[in-house]
Design a protein that fits this description.
Blueprint (H helix, E strand, L loop, with lengths): L2 H40 L4 H5 L7 H10 L2 H10 L3 E10 L2 E13 L8 E16 L5 E5 L14
Antiparallel strand pairs: 1-2, 2-3, 3-4
Length: 156
Amino acid sequence: MSRSNFFLFLVALCTLFSCNKVADTLSEERAQEVVESFAAAYFNYDFKRASSYCDDESIRLFRFLASQLTQADIDKLNSKGAAEISVDSIVNNDDGCYAIVSVENFLELDSIGGVSHIVESGTFRIPLANTLDAEGNEQWEVRMAYLPRNEKRSRD
């Protein structure tokens, strides 16, 4: 291989790796946008909007959760102000892909028939899936097998 061909090969290889890095960065940005939008809707009990970021299997959980809301829960939601969301990280490893989300000022429902309460802060793991839409374009969606649980128990 001549010196100029070798140089061109190195440039092409570097370009390939940098393009993959840009694609990974753009994909992670899209995943973060989906998680932020989903979490803002979910933790403010806008289930219709939250479900638009989920796979079809997750929608049954919204129906269940909505059926558990009482008038007292709705009154608390209306009086507390919006929950504040921040995506701490997107993790993609052998265990799957998920986002770690911090939430402040949210309503936590207790067990069935229990009393809901406002929680100052919590941390949640939101599972994600990278799929293809009908046109073959990459898309991120939330894939909930169960309702997100607060991994950081507050002393509220």
